[in-house]
Amino acid sequence: MKVATQPADVLIRGLQRGFAGGLAYAAFLSFCVNILLLTVPMFMLQVQDRVIVSRSYDTLTMLLVIAVGALALYGTIEFIRSLTFQAMASILARRLNLPALQAAVSTSLEKGSGQATQAIRDLNELRYFIASSAIATPLEAMWSPIFLAVLFAFHWIYGLVGLASLLILLLLGVVSDMLTRRALKEANEEGVASINEISATLRHAETIEAMGMLPALSSRWRAKQIAMLEHLDLGTRRGKFIAAITRASRMTMQLSIYATGAVLIIRHEVSAGTLMAASILLGRLLAPFDSMITDWRQWVLAAAAWKRVRELLQSQSSQRQSVPTPATQGDLVIDRLVYAPKGGEQTVIKGVSFTLEPGEVLGLVGPSGAGKSTLARLIVGVLKPNVGGVYLDGHNTYLWERGSFGDMVGYLPQSVSLLDGTIAENIARMRKPDPHAILEAARIAGVHELIGRLPLGYDTNVADSDFKLSGGQRQRIGLARALYGMPRLVVLDEPNANLDTEGEQSLIRAINAARESGAIVILIAHRPSVMQIVDKILVLREGRVAQFGPRSAISGMITPAGVVELEPSKPVPAREVSA
Ligand SMILES: Nc1ncnc2c1ncn2[C@@H]1O[C@H](COP(=O)(O)OP(=O)(O)OP(=O)(O)O)[C@@H](O)[C@H]1O
Q1: What is the pLDDT of residue 556?
Q2: What are phi and psi of 494, to 5 degrees?
Q3: Locate the ABC transporter domain: which residues (predicted)?
Q4: Are 248 and 290 in contact (CB under 8 A)?
Q5: 376: CA distance to ligand 1 center in Å?
Q6: In the sheet where 361-365 sits, what is the strand order?
Q7: Going edge to edge, which strands form the sheet with 387-392?
Q8: Is 374 in the pocket of ligand 1 (CB under 6 A)?
């Protein structure tokens, strides 16, 4: 079966090749633009040296027609060139937005959610940069030899002045890079890290406010912000200093070409027309270099954004199948599963194996930190196992194409997060809502009446700031979302943590309904009440299966207090029971 979306390296290489083609085309257009930019100085030269001397209106008219035609062509080519950059920016966004978002989501599972928003910010930065005038300046600078050659053609001294001016600007450019690049890069990295940290922390605004944590957090942020601002100030100050020197130098260069021209005219070596034309040509020759020095900050920021996007795409380890897998109704096989978080020192899941049949309900219990939630995430294919795998009817749940896997699985994580949208949209998993399936899921989860009591019923928006769902309400709506379309595999991580007796009864009825429909249900719970309905129990301890078997075979583990107590004398090996 075809595996994975386009690998990052192939995607990046394809994009770079496309960009090289786009830049070559834009470079050709820049060549035309630069040639046509000679129109004004040439027109001035001809008017001075021919029209005024010959007093010929016909010559003036002819020159005017040619010049206006050339300028119209210049405008057209300039427009086409800007459209080329616009198209390149749009291709970048269209090709990278989704892969970058996917990479950000999968990286967020391991490293936190800041990655996703940063990836979008970086792509926007790149898009603006490519569509801006800054990217055109090196292409214009490339053709500066044309202007230099024309200056030499006017007089070798004009050429020398032009060449010297160019070298001085290049030197200023190198100095500017040396003085500003590092400071700007560090300021950018610190800015990105600090925004990510602040946005991650702000998700816990309630805790921050309730426990008066803001002053402590503010001083932490302030320290980082100050470090960032110091680097930014340093880089910007140096950049502005060089930009001021550049501007003053350019004016001095303009003066020197005038002075040189005056000497040459006095000595009758050039005509008066060349003086004006040479001055304009020198301006054109130096303009792109001047702009590059002024825009250098944009280049540094764009390079940093591209580096982050490229690294994010290349770091994406999740390679899923791209072809949807058909619906199945078979065993769930967990085979020698081992998982160690990236960068973490401990192995959280250490060789877990067991099998469940359709229609079976498993209670997954164990002390805090035993690895229950991690095992649940591995089962629903959120995390990639280091060794072994999870197979539903023989299909690997990690590799499964996510769209079709979504139809097969219902997952209620420990901390339920409803997405921005209505209750109906949330239950329908943000797809086009199917009213019948929504009502069915709500009925099975026992939340239809609860939703009916909300301000706008199923159309109540969970992001509405005037209204807030309680923890139990969120959990029960999350259960309806997990049961939407009655999936084949339902994984519920502490679904009764916030439930009252009525909610717990609804949960038990929902689990029974899922069992009757032939679904495999995995239930993680500390409270013993819901454990009475499970068929099998798996006790996880320090990432290993301590016991696994029918509920009746595992005695003494569920006490009224919900504490798991094992009878070490009667272990039931996992493989023996599942066989
Ligand atoms: N991404 C991760 N990076 C580092 N350690 C992790 C990661 N995910 C889980 N762990 C560690 O794995 C262990 C098991 O965590 P897990 O959340 O699976 O436990 P649990 O059995 O569900 O606990 P609880 O009953 O308290 O919810 C913990 O020690 C946790 O710190």
Answers
A1: 59
A2: 50, 60
A3: 332-567
A4: no
A5: 11
A6: 409-412, 489-493, 520-524, 361-365, 536-541, 544-550
A7: 349-356, 332-339, 387-392, 395-396
A8: yes
Residue 225 CB burial class (10 angstroms; 0-12, 13-18, ≥19): middle
**Cβ of 370 below 6 Å from ligand 1:** yes
Q: What percent of the chain has pLDDT over 90?
A: 36
Distance CA 538, CA 548 (A): 4
Q: Specify the pLDDT at position 403.
A: 81
CB of 368 within 6 A of ligand 1: the answer is yes
Q: Whose CA is nearest to atom 31 of ligand 1?
A: 369
From the alpha carbon of 494, which atom of ligand 1 is closest?
27
Q: Residue 35's Cα: distance from chain center in Å?
A: 41
If you count DSSP H runs as helices and E runs as strands, how many of each does the chain have, helices first? 20, 10
This complex has an ipTM of: 0.95
Give 565-577 pLDDT, tens digit per residue: 544 444 444 444 3
371 C-beta closer than 6 A to ligand 1:
yes
Q: From residue 155, how far is each of 149, 276, 284, 423 by CA, in Å? A: 10, 13, 17, 78
Asked if residue 444 is part of any domain, the answer here is: no
Q: Are 291 and 343 contained in the same domain?
A: no
Mean pLDDT of 139-148: 87
Rounded to whole angstroms, how far apart are CA atoms 186 and 184? 5
Question: What's the rounded Cα separation, in Å, for the pair 489 and 334?
Answer: 13
Best mutation site among 374, 540, 545, 563 for ligand 1 pocket (most ligand atoms within 8 Å of CB): 374
- Among left, alpha and beta (phi > 0; psi -120 to 50; other), residue 230 is alpha
Residues 6 or more apart whose CB falls under 8 angstroms from that of 31 comprise: 143, 146
**For ligand 1, atom 28: residue with the closest CA:** 369
Q: Are residues 203 and 280 in the same domain?
A: yes
The CA 4 to ligand 1 mean position distance, Å, reads 28
Closest of 294, 286, 277 to residue 140, by C-alpha:
286
What range defines the domain where residue 158 resides? 8-315
The pLDDT value recorded for residue 3 is 44
Query: Domains in the chain: how many in total?
Result: 2
Note the pLDDT of residue 63. 93
Look at residue 525 in the predicted model and tell me its pLDDT: 84
Of 316-325, 405-414, 463-472, 503-512, minimum mean pLDDT range: 316-325
Which CATH number goes with the domain that contains 174? 1.20.1560.10
In ligand 1, which atom is closest to the CA atom of 110? Answer: 1
Classify residue 428: in a domain, yes or no.
no
Mutational test site, ligand 1, from 109, 337, 348, max ligand atoms within 8 Å of CB: 348
Task: Give yes or no for residue 344 CB within 6 A of ligand 1.
Answer: yes
| Ligand 1: nearest atom to the Cα of 414 | 27
What's the pLDDT at 39?
92
User: Given a cut of 90, is residue 102 above it in pLDDT?
Assistant: no
Neighbours of 424 (CB within 10 A): 19
CA distance 231 to 238: 11
Residues 247 and 279 occupy one common structural domain? yes
